[in-house]
Amino acid sequence: MVAWPGDGGVFIALISSMAEGAECNVTRLSMSAHTGTHMDAPRHFIADGVTMEEWPPEATIGPCRVIAIADPVAVTAEELAPHQPRAGERILFKTENSRKRSLHEPGFVEEFVYVAEDAAKLLVECGVRSVGVDYLSVGGFSKDGVETHVALLGAGIWVVEGLDLSAISPGEYEWNCLPLKLVGADGAPCRALLREL
After folding, report:
1. Where are the alpha helices (DSSP H) in 27-144?
2. Is the pTM for the entire model greater than 0.90?
3. Which fold, 33-196?
4. Residue extents of the structural domains in the chain
5. CA 131, CA 151: separation in Å to the nearest integer?
6. Most buried of 24, 68, 112, 164 (most Cβ within 10 A)?
7. Rounded CA separation 164/126 (Å)
8. First vs last C-alpha separation in the chain
9. CA geometry: angle at 2 spanning 129 and 107, to 5°?
10. What is the pLDDT along the chain (197 residues), one digit of tens a residue?
């Protein structure tokens, strides 16, 4: 599973085995809270932001819209504006990442499609509730990484990263995205399910 550089890998090990005489099997899992499909709490980039246990279920449970983005570099305000984001809306961006950059491969790709700072500011102005992206970060690796996170998380917009949208068409869906309740954490792994409306 791909991980952000410096976050370390995913380690899964059987620490108790029935085959070796134990009463039960027990697996140990070790990874960054920002590995795979995960949610960013505001605390990820906002020093006094709320943490994962304060996640409001309405942020990522309910109707959502998947928007296809053509720009091969970033989600820009220019391309986003005609889609008219609405207050309280949950928006997921399907980009070239879904076609070109597998989240299931171990190698991290620095040149992924991200949400540009101007698009993040437009989403804040429109009052969206949450934003999801199809690679490991809503902000770019070399550009707008901090700026985009600060704009969205600072406005109380919850962010879901690492979504596998490869088999999803643009349109309206019911979204159920549930994070682990990690008290005091700046992020958490989550499961995300879409159902066509």
Report:
1. 77-80, 97-100, 117-126
2. yes
3. Glucose Oxidase; domain 1 (3.50.30)
4. 33-196
5. 12
6. 112
7. 25
8. 31
9. 130
10. 788 998 988 899 999 999 999 999 999 999 999 999 999 999 999 999 999 999 999 999 999 999 999 999 999 999 999 999 999 999 999 999 998 866 777 788 899 999 999 999 999 999 999 999 999 999 999 999 999 999 999 999 999 999 999 999 999 999 999 999 999 999 999 999 999 98
151 in Cβ contact with 124 (< 8 Å): yes
To the query of whether residue 44 is one of the catalytic residues in this protein, the response is yes
The active-site residue, picked from 34, 44, 83, 104, is 44
Could you tell me the CA-to-CA distances from 156 to 42, 98, 159, 193 in Å, in that order? Answer: 7, 26, 9, 22
Q: What value, to the nearest 5°, has the Cα angle with vertex 44 and ends 154 and 90?
A: 60
